[in-house]
Amino acid sequence: MQTIKNALIALIVTVFFGxxxxxxxxxxxxxxxxxxxxxxxxxxxxxxxxxxGRCIYGGFYVGENSPIPNxxxxxxxxxxxxxxxxxxxxxxxxGCFADTYHWKDGIGxxxxxxxxxxxxxxxxxxxxxxxxxxxxNMCEVLETEPYLAGNIGSGTVQELADWVQYVxxxxxxxxxxxxxxxxxxxxxxxRYWGVGNEAWGCxxxxxxxxxxxxxxxxxxxxxxxxxxxxxxxxxSGANSxxxxxxxxxxxxxxxxxxxxxxxxxxxxxxxxKKGSDDRFNEDTYxxxxxxxxxxxxLVTRHxxxxxxxxPQKKVALVVDEWGGWYDVADGTNPGFLYQxxxxxxxxxxxxxxxxxxxxxxxxxxxxxxxxxxxxxxVILTDKEKMILTPTYHVLEMYKVHQDATLxxxxxxTSDYTVGTERLPAVSISASVDxxxxxxxxxxxxxxxxxxxxEIPLDGFTYKKVTGRILTSGNLQDKNTFDDPNKIxxxxxxxxxxxxxxxxxxxxxxxxxxxxxx
Length: 517
Ligand code: AHR
Prior knowledge:
The protein is an alpha/beta fold. The chain has two domains: 2-31 and 407-516, Golgi alpha-mannosidase II (Immunoglobulin-like, Sandwich), CATH 2.60.40; 42-404, Alpha-Beta Barrel (TIM Barrel), CATH 3.20.20. The chain contains eleven helices and 27 strands. The strands form seven sheets. Strands 2-5-8-9-10-11-12-13 form an eight-stranded parallel beta barrel, surrounded by five helices. It has a six-stranded antiparallel beta sheet with strand order 16-20-21-27-23-24, covered by helices on one side. The chain has a five-stranded mixed beta sheet with strand order 17-1-22-26-25, with no helix packed on it. Alpha-L-arabinofuranose is lined by residues 50, 94-96, 197-198, 321, 369-370, 375.
């Protein structure tokens, strides 16, 4: 009834004042009293950097001799931006590239490292000048934890076991001797290890049964380090809604051999018709949001399968590739996956991170694909220039949730409708941190309608409410190298206290973070 009334109001407003006039919708939040309030793992806010296009070379890494200011070859402007955004972990070297990568080719004197062809990404020559030591040093500079993706597609058990030992070992053995010879005396703690990537596809086109056996074989030879509490083995997980993949892995791999199961899901409209990155209409935007919001169902259903085999939730669901995927930007190498980033991407990031937060009991790690110059990047570079994308700002705003305690909630939101199709307009998540500050993040994906959200505040003690907002007039708006600050967060003044409730007025296409201190 309320929806019909709202639709009528919107219709009357539109008829009398024209389609550009903004009508107002309503949403109501209820906090769920729940004994279990999981922590929102900071690792949900992790990132992914592959040897793909200009992510590593010409992105993160410009080399020590570059005129672009750098620290051991890593751009200083990127270091500063990522430290401000706070990235808890960084996944490397792939992606599909991981199952072609032989880590021993990337150590030792750079001039002596062998080359290979990067067969998945443009067929370019990979000369291995950025390898394990460069990556681990980069993680230290970025104050992030490394997440290494092992090669099980074209590698060997010995090779992966050696890699684990090479970085971790503090006793005398051939691998630690080699590491020391290459300049790193002290071992490095690498907790997160991917056991292959997309084993159902570029990682070897395996069946889940075959992969489960492969996983057990590799995981066995990594176990020396798990028993020391040092590493987490993450199985290559399902492609979006392939529930059989998760079911089979959970059935065949004992829970004590497995610390995480991955899931990859991209907000893509159609794989063979992805559409332009920055020239799209409202219908296309709506379809992108449908694809992004599918994450709610995916996480719910994959988690339910995991619950059957692991009711104690020991194994994490690790969504280590997510984000919007479009056709490459005009005039760029199709193998490099470079795309612009618009307000549509900010909306995808806002809703997806709220979904992950709300499923924090099982989703304990996720990685946006990819950090620099590839897919839904947070940073784009053009020679010495660098811009922060709308997606960057969303992650920077949401960082307040990292390691805070989830406040479980339910929202009854009006719909965002296009034609006969509808999606929930507002998404939300909330947490309380160790200082007792409450953080609420909200996204209104509706392109035309304002949404007033009612949030009950009884039970919270606070002195002030502050907030920031990211919004822009058009879905296609973006930051460019000529106009790098068109979209950036500003102070949010759209809150009002009324009868023990917080009323939040969300403009169309907006992301808001509120802090109750
Ligand atoms: O992120 C780009 C590619 O997408 C990755 O290499 C692969 O894992 C996925 O298919």
